[in-house]
Amino acid sequence: MSTPTHHSLTVMVNGEEHHVMVEPRRTLLDLLRHDLQLTGAKLVCDMGNCGACTVIVDDRSVYACLVLAVDCDGKQIQTIEGLAEGMALDPVQQAFVEEDAFQCGYCTPGQIMSMRALLNENPEPTDDDITRAVSGNLCRCGAYAHIARAGRRAVELQREAEVTS
Amino acid sequence: MTSFEVTASSKEGKVELDIEERAPDVVPWGASTQFSVVGKGVSRLEAYEKVTGRAQYSSDVRLPRQAYARILRSPHPHARIRSIDISAAEAMPGVFSIICKDNTDKIEWYDGSAVFDDPVRLVGEEVAAVAAVSPEVAEDALRAITVTYEELPHVTSLQRATEPDAPRARLDSESEGNISGEVKTYERGDPDAGLRQADVFVDAVYTTQAAIHNSLEPHGCTASWSGDELTLWDSTQSVFTVRQQVAEALGMPEHKVRVIKEHMGGGFGAKQIAWKPDIIAALLAKKAGRPVQLMLDREGESLTVGNRPNSRQRVRLGATRDGVLTAIIADIEQANGAYQTGGEASNVSGIYQTLYKCGNVRTVQTPLYTNTGPAVAFRAPGQVEGAWALEQAMDELAIRLEMDPIELRLKNYSEVDQSDDDKPLSLPEGLALSYQKVTQAASWSGRPEDSGGGPICKGIGFAAHDWGAGGGSPPGYAWIELNEDGTADVVTGTQDIGTGTRTGLAQVAAESLGLPLDDIAFHLGDTALGPYSPVSSGSATQATIGPAIQAAAADIRAQLLQVASSAMEITKDRLSVQDGVVAVDGDSSRGMSVKKVMQEIAPNTLRAQGARVPNPKDKAIRTFGAQIAEVEVDTETGEITVNRVVASHEFGRVINPVMVESQIIGGITQGLGFALTEDRVVDHRLGRVMNPNLEEYKVPTIADIPEMVNVPVDVPDMAANATGAKGVGEPPLVPTAPAIANAIYNAIGIRFHDAPITRERVLEALASKRSIDAAREQEQSA
Predict the structure, then answer these.
(1) pTM of the model
(2) What is the ipTM of this complex?
(3) Are strands B67-73 and B146-151 parallel, antiparallel or unpaired?
């Protein structure tokens, strides 16, 4: 078996430019977790069922396990690690803390990125919008009721932040 | 200074250790105790790490030169291995080490098997493993390994396994047929006579499915050697168990093995023991001369590292006309898979023996081998399966008696542990309080009238449970160091498996030390740093380690007051500590901060150890709960919608109401999956699991959940331990599924004996009911 050729690509991750060489079969998730050591996005199902690997690519939330790294050349990628500024949490993160919207926390980065993508697109979502936005994010601890509450709280926090800024 | 008197005595050839509390300052937290930190819904200590993606799980460990491992698994449910050829894989660039039975010393593993065994006894059994430069290269290498098998007859169905002519799942087993262990028989009174005395009967067979834990973080670890010392970052509920089992398997002394688990992505009972990946990763790392990370993929996770055993239960209840139980008989079979792991512990019989007062009880529980993954404890093991059957049977009995189901339960209320010489319960009113609270919150007034007309039928259902766990499992230890600036480090060898242990125990530490929560650093999950603590299972951790911390803190407080007394020149009996200040009785102007007191003796610090004393011998500690479910059934599509579940559980004092609510809603959500959608589907002809993934194994999503109302009993159980708190990890799952099943019966008059109640089963049952009704009508008109 011949070694597959590596491809060079440039990605902007959380505002930082990275030049990497990857095999064409490497997923965006493995690029993040192995090449860039950004382990916030999690590998759980590896087939687009659970949403634990959700990140935002050019303003759209995607399952990073279903995206090839080579398809991200030149793209803007936001991961859970890029959301907070130091100790200042993003409104969605803050809402998850306030509402205890997790237990083990393994699905949390994915839940938060799905919710973040929703609020980027629609800052005033309905309860149904919130449910839909995270309906592809499984939580085995069953924190869903609190996740829904955190979604509503995030809307309020974001609104307040915009008023004060 | 030591807080404990330790005595050892010999009993039946075994040394028994008794630890007696001597610390005079442990004041039990009674009903009137005023709290600053306990009882508050503070955020999880690790919340920042978890919402920012910085929490490091075993799967996130990244060490220099780290390799990634994958496992080659058997495609057959039962087969001898004729040959394994790893030569092509070994020659591949980027492959560091490959192990299989041909090149590895035989390491004994669970139930008389080996880490790499021959024959293999389930689809997914470990045949070889590869460590390589990347996961992708490891997978390439797996494909380059050639294995030839000689297939053997297999049995995967529980029903088939019980038949006399069934293939044997274990050719090496000495027991009869496929029986995998002790047939457990329990009897009190005369159950057969009890049945004969009864006026009203229930006799039905219930089945429960094999359910898969599906923790989002799979089993696995990162293994790293430094000389002859091994460190494992393991996704486990028990760092000390893993250390002991790995050391034993590898022939190492325990102090050369260190097991670390800082954060964990769920366990639910499946991670109580060391699993093969722990050993395989250690062997691969040794051979490769570099750290190896071996996390299972979802298929391996679904097939090989535990499931709730599927069960078949024939239940017979007898009662007098006025609803007094005269007999309870349960004949139980369960499919334990190909290996008894020692962590399966599914005591389905338990609930039949304890939940209701009855003098005539018999349970017979038969475990069976099948060529499927090994069964292992799953959140309230056994109790979930038993409650599914018993609580539906009680509902049926109430209907036949034309009695309110809660009235029937109150009529058969037990205040003692009937399975243990009628030992009094530590909180005998616990279950009755649950009944009371849940019926008030749900506005239960017996069964609603028929919803009448239209395809949507509404129903309401009730179920109760008890649970022999939650009272804590001593021994367990904690250390506290009060630093020179008045902050404290609390160290214990327990683990936070996602339940909030870190926070709940830190609240106990802060409260008992008299410090603000912010002044506590809490360290756990590392065999090298913390004193021994048992496995995080049986809803035990809060009740095991909480009192140990409380004892250590009492010791520290006594020492601190001694120092403060000298520093402040005030007698000790006038001093107390609260919110970081040593206060003087009757003179609020003379208080001194703990920081200032400690600086008087710096660089000395104050240190203490706390041990969890044994549970009381004269009381049975249990937890209880009851739930009411409200459902809608669409009789045209078979769709079931659970609209609301009201839950009231009794687990002693509430330490953190917010985290408790998270446990309650999580348990109900898992119960919803167990009731309606979750099922490991096996093609018995092929012996193959058809849904080892999260696509076709249906765990609930956010779109499936009902409204959930949590009304905890919240009464301190002072007979249990000095914190008055018990555990609530497992209980909220137990009554959900039978409450839903009872509500469905209430809605459409059909009793579903088999879990899960899928739409297909609903439609089939509705069709069959319609044809029976039609036939009856025809008969009447003829």
Answers:
(1) 0.97
(2) 0.97
(3) unpaired
